[in-house]
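During the reporting period the student researcher (J.K.) took over the structure-prediction task from the postdoctoral fellow and processed the backlog of single-chain submissions. One of the processed entries is reproduced below for the supervisory committee.
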Amino acid sequence: MSSLEHVSRVRLLYKAILRLHRSLPLEMRALGDQYVKDEFRRHKQVNPAEAHMFMQEWTKYYLTLGKQVTKPNKEQHVGSHLSGEFVDYFNDDQAEQLLELHKAIKNPTEGNGGSPS
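J.K. obtained the following structure tokens:
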């Protein structure tokens, strides 16, 4: 695959994920959009093996979230649990990002200068 083809596929996936996030509640959308933007920016200059894994995982995310937000269910369940085996693959920076994301989800007002609820 040429470099131009790869860039095109990355852009398509990135835009598709952001479009899918429009189906999320406002707070989840804001958090998700920012996370996606940061992750795609962070992975601009990775080696081909990392780029392949990155695209696979974000494609899985897109497909999973797509199924979850299109279910005709009033109580929308979004997300899935990460297996311990999957988390074991994370490097220290990724584990720290996951912990920060977890904190932001559990207490979204704390990082915004608001008081915890």
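The committee noted the following: The two ends are 49 Å apart (CA to CA).
J.K. will present the remaining backlog at the next meeting.
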